Amino acid sequence: MLMFQLNNLYILKRAIYLILVIFSFLNTENMQAQEGNPTLGAWYGYFIFSDFKDSQFGLMGDVQYRNYEVTSDFQQFIVRAGLSYKFKNTPLKVLAGHSYFVTGFFGESEETFYEHRPYQDVIWNQKIAARLYFLHRIRFEERFIENQDFRMRYRYMLNAKIPLNKPEISAKTLYLWTAAEVFLNGKQSVVTPNIYDRTWFFGGGGYKFSDAVWAELAYMREVTNAQTKGQLIVSLFHKF
Question: Which InterPro entries match (predicted)?
Fold first, then answer.
């Protein structure tokens, strides 16, 4: 029975993966017709992970700060925390949590609005050949935005890493990484007229100082129906 459920889950994951990746490429064909925003933004993040001793449960959380420019023009502040559960003898992990957002507007305006966003993740890792590491994540988001109607959003992320100075990603390892994440709205409305919301493309490098601490530096290109914009990504990860 367990093997049957795992096989069905595997088929479902592959189907969702294929659909969202194809959808992303179909939409990014229109990038040249979109307005390119030349302003480089910045995204600074601190991420924590902790597994309970002798348990399959754990905690994951992060604090993030985003600017429309590298050092100015506030874009977003995020606090997020969730409880995870890893299934025995599988690469599969699930997570449920809550996040709080404060978002600003591009330019001189100092107005902000808040958002509460419960979310659920399905995460699994995969290793291909000797040195290629993949991480897949499907995320469901319930969005409660100030003065707006409730809405859903669905996300799929594929992250790939390859170590440079060691055969595997362990302490004192330098690595390259790339990722893409596709966002889909739950339904069309005045606020979200398109099902396709956006795609994030990442590329950069990282260094794992120890089994508990690592850092990454990257460039991200955000592609929406209206424009494309670049951001510098600086991230610190801490596993307790």
Answer: DUF2490
